[in-house]
Amino acid sequence: MTVGERDASEPDDVPETTESTEPADAETVDAVASSHDAVEGDVVPAPTEPADRVADDTDTSATLGALSAAWHGGTTDDGEPLADAGTSDTADAPTEPDVDPNEPRLGAGAAAPSGGVDEAPTRGAPAGAAASVYRSRDERNRSVYRRANPWYRRLARGLIATCLLGAAAIGIYVGARYVQDWLDRDQIPAAGPDVPDVEQTSILITSTAEQIPLQGTLTFDTNTGSFEFVGLAGSPNATDNLTSPDGVEVFAQNEQGLWVPVDPSEPVVQSIDRAMTYLRDDDTADAILTNRLRRGYIDLDDQVDEGDDDDNQRTRYELSLDLASFAEAFPLQWQDFQETAIPGVDDVNNHPVTLWLDDDEVLVGVDDPSTGWSWQRLSYSSAPFEATTPAANQIVDSTTTGQILGVSCTVTGVTFDTALATCDAALEAGRAFAVQAGLADQTTSPAADLAVATVCSTLQGDEARSYDEDGYLTLAGLLVDAGICPGETSLVQQDG
Questions:
Q1: Residue 186 · residue 303 · CB < 8 Å
Q2: Suppose 440 and one of 64, 274, 378, 445 were both cysteines; which one would form an S-S bond, judging by CB atoms 3.0 to 4.6 Å apart?
Q3: CA 178 – CA 183 distance, rounded (Å)
Q4: Is the model's pTM score more than 0.90?
Q5: Any idea what the Cα angle at residue 368 is, between residues 357 and 304, rounded to 5°?
Q6: What is the pLDDT of residues 117-137, one digit of tens each?
Q7: Which residues of 486-495 are buried (b: 16+ CB within 10 A; e: fewer)?
Q8: DSSP secondary-structure letter at 128?
Q9: How many CA atoms, within 13 angstroms, populate the side-chain half-sphere of residue 208?
Q10: How far is CA 271 from CA 127, 215, 268, 276, 437, in A?
């Protein structure tokens, strides 16, 4: 083994050192020793400057031996400490023991572990053991946060945040109310609503329009055109009672209760045909408020909900139509409007029209005071309508006379005679008259049947009866005129 070579079993390799015969420089030795003592690692750092090449190899070996003795605390072969052996004869060099170049030396990894470096005490920490206590980063952050954010500052920020949240909540509430008011504002009926199918309907017409002077109850089928018409008491149509089983052949009931064929050119039949032309497709408000008319020619004057009962609740729309401007902008659509929407209407601005819609958005009423066109829908259904078909033995020629065939009917335990062909026809027409007289809300109400039976029994009785509502007097006249239950109207009297 050469000088400076370590045992192969040691963990660290020491660079080989070339022996020198020149004396060692004392200052160089001291500097190397000092630097070796200051470093607590396994490897001695190399000097940044080249060593003095004047010292000989012998003194260099002695110096390395001294360093090894100082670092490892070893001894020589004689048992003497290496620190006391092999001193140099040179006066300037420190006394060093002789070192055998072939002597094995302990590696740096066998050196005793050095002590840990004490942590510098925290600034401002108390003296003693507490000065070396380590605080984590989170603890330091919390400490700094508490000092930089005292309780009153945190409280102020909380109050400010609460005020901002309160202001935001108030703003959201006000905005929601504004949006709700905007959504609930009065609006004209929506276009193209989804409504129930209407195949049969019963409509009370009170029209004084020049093109359709018709007053009475018209029940018809929108597909087949079959209809029944009963004139309104006290109107020019009071004596008219017509039926058409197929929409082509028309029969009128005479005073004897027989059915007489009617010429289709008769004025009353012509008025019914024109009325059905306007009413057949009037299921929604689109029948009046056409697509072109909605483009800025409609002004909503008022919107009112009518009726307390959910089954009888309606919404009234009072509108003003700019028909002159509409006719000028859309001449073709204006002509169609005259032929299908409102009969006899003129092209004037600010034309008033009132519409009624039920809770299903079905059009149930129209009133045009300028033209006199007015009607109210009494009932409607998706079932087909079958008009009264007169029996063969009840059909007579208008030039002949015949005997009235009476039919006995029993309703709610009350029996009366009718001049109509069947009790069902009499009861159906009587219910419509009861609603018209204001004695029932709708034709399917039990109150309608009770009103018809009560008045019919009085009309055909022997004693007069007084009623506290004038609607019974109206119903009595309608029942007698229509032949539902012929009798003496003077028997129905009013109290007081």
A1: yes
A2: 445
A3: 9
A4: no
A5: 35
A6: 455 555 555 555 454 567 788
A7: bbebebbeee
A8: S
A9: 7
A10: 117, 10, 5, 9, 24
